[in-house]
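Work Package 3 (structural annotation) set out to generate three-dimensional models for the target panel prioritized at the project kickoff. During this period the team completed the workflow that converts sequence records into discrete structure tokens, so that structures can be stored uniformly alongside our sequence database. As a representative example, we reproduce one entry of 69 residues exactly as it appears in the project archive.
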Amino acid sequence: MLVCHCYAVNEAVIRECIARGARDEDDVAAACGAGSCCGSCMPTIWRLLGEGAEDGWPCQASARVVQSR
């Protein structure tokens, strides 16, 4: 699944970044570019970072509150 349309980064690439040590959205952006442009992919990046934390990875995903208007 394509996650970042700005840089054409799919979910597998982001999962690989996390597996290789990305611990937050800044690490993911530095590794593959995802999340560094328009921001529409950030909820998916946060979800994937959170899944890493649930699997026991030493992940420091930022806590976010999304409010709908």
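The beta strands are 2-4, 9-10.
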